[in-house]
Amino acid sequence: MALKRIAFCILFCVSQVQSLNVDLAGSNLSSLPLSSIPTSVTSLILDNNVLTVVEFPDGYDILGSLRLKNNLLSEFPNLCSIKNSLVNLVLHTNRISDVNPQLMKCLQKMKSLNLGDNLLTSFPDVFMPRLETLKLFYNFFEGIPFIPDLGKTLNLLQIGNNPIKRLTRHSLDQLGALTLKMGWTPISTLPNLCHLKNSSALTVSATDAYNLTCDCHIRWLQLVSPLNPIVEVNSAPCFSPVEMVGVNFHSIRPESLQCLGRPVLKVHLS
């Protein structure tokens, strides 16, 4: 029994050393209080402060998770000093309008990056071999950012609540096998995704789209097998034409999705 207690104590102590969480949220911090942050920290929460710059000296070699939600950052922080350990980074609700690709490139071990609710209009295409989740919701993107290299490893690209009015097959073809979440965007129509190079691997979630034009251009959506959905538009109401305003898209029969007037040939060069 004594041996079991000793073994339990050893395992407990080791686990405590391996995981050290420091929570300094809501402390009205304007600079990093390094004296209060031991170098053995593995998870650091700095949400709801007034930080404008965040840089770590050498020595924070096992800091894997960093939260900086709701601060006053205007630039992507230089975190290259913790590049060998940082896996999860949350920069939600700041004032970041630009991302330096060199500062992104050094974070090669990062798996999840949250830049939601900032001032971004573009995003650098930097290959990051382990990045799986990228959240860019509540920014100012007018289209899907062109990220063929970055998109190779992504499983989830969340870009809802942006002023994206139109999707193109070119912008979707560059993405790999991932789920593209676009809830609450003013897109009016969707290109026929059945013709994409990666149509069997890409899922576009456009739930709660609020500007949907229910005409012949999206009839293909009604003909896609429900067993293999490429696009999810559940709860998206029609915005036009007049006779379909407010009608749920899935309640409309395919033959009712008509285009009025003479057909017009449009050529899109990309």
From TrEMBL:
In the record, which residues are listed under signal peptide?
A: 1-19
Gene3D superfamilies recorded for this chain? Ribonuclease Inhibitor (3.80.10.10)
Database matches in InterPro entries: Leu-rich_rpt, LRR_dom_sf
Name the SUPFAM superfamilies for this protein. Answer: L domain-like
- Coiled-coil annotated spans: none
Keyword set includes Magnesium? no
Q: Does the keyword Membrane apply?
A: no
Q: Which UniProt keywords apply?
A: Leucine-rich repeat, Repeat, Signal
UniProt protein name = LRRCT domain-containing protein
Q: Which organism is it from?
A: Capitella teleta (Polychaete worm)
